Amino acid sequence: MKAELIKESINLFVEKGFSATSIQDIVDKLGVTKGSFYYHFKSKEALLMHIHLSYIDDLLKRQKTILETEKEARGKLVKVVELLIHDIEKQGALGRVYYREIRHLTPENATTIREKRAEFRDRIESIITEGIENGEFRKNLEAKMITFAILGITNWSYQWFNPNGDLSVRELADMYTDFILHGIQSKES
Amino acid sequence: MKAELIKESINLFVEKGFSATSIQDIVDKLGVTKGSFYYHFKSKEALLMHIHLSYIDDLLKRQKTILETEKEARGKLVKVVELLIHDIEKQGALGRVYYREIRHLTPENATTIREKRAEFRDRIESIITEGIENGEFRKNLEAKMITFAILGITNWSYQWFNPNGDLSVRELADMYTDFILHGIQSKES
């Protein structure tokens, strides 16, 4: 039941927004009582925090594996971009809630999530810095700003990309890693 | 009074979200009555539509001027990216409402805005196509996907960029046009 509650909530949050969705709306979709909801989550905000935490913890875990596996900055960056883009297929609705509804978390919970997001971002920044220092990437880049540009490209794709359309996630990921690498690679590499 | 109503509403929508902000909240901020609100807007949604329309109509107008003034694809693209990034300084909060709250418009109004957004996007796509055809940009680019990538970079900057921080909008715009041009330029150009 917990998984169904999460799934239906995500769909409703995407469709109507977090504020406009009531616990009653969620349980009505599943034909269960509010008791079932409160058995799993103490509030609508607790559910939203659960969604945020599971999303970012999973990304951080998979990012860590990439950093431990790939040797070059270029390879690390490609895999992290692929990780984010491939997620659209499985996690599209979840991603939209994650990017849009953080302001409805309690201040403490929002801080926790922001710190984890910053960790994910800092690790990308470290990849860029590493690439600049070892000559894979151009010398005149600002690693922090390039990191935000990359996250802009990948995060925005959650808003418009339709994985059931003409283009596959694979093709999108290839196109975007190609664009990003051309944008930052040094001529020699 | 209309301008003040719009300004306070935008601040409240950014802070609390559209759904969680009441007309009462808006008029309380200004110390006026609900009558003042209804004199200018027939509903909270009508105000939201006003915000969306004025934002996109202004962007379309300025984009048109750029297209009529610049000769090369490269110059057109740089100016459009600058237009979007420079707007953060003046229009940051407005931009965040614009990107986030479109789902709270009526279906007809949302369609009107989506059509205008599509026009803005299509014009960028035409610049990319033009550049591919005349050899300024690489041959193997998909103009549509590159357009979304560029909009991802600029739109995302509304979420994180602080115009009062260490980096000026000018520097950010230069960095991003440089990154984008490296990403798409043909070697010869």
TrEMBL record, chains A, B:
GO terms for molecular function: DNA binding. The keyword DNA-binding applies. SUPFAM superfamilies: Homeodomain-like, Tetracyclin repressor-like, C-terminal domain. Keywords: DNA-binding. PANTHER family: ACREF/ENVCD OPERON REPRESSOR-RELATED, ACREF_ENVCD OPERON REPRESSOR-RELATED. This is TetR/AcrR family transcriptional regulator. It comes from Planococcus glaciei.
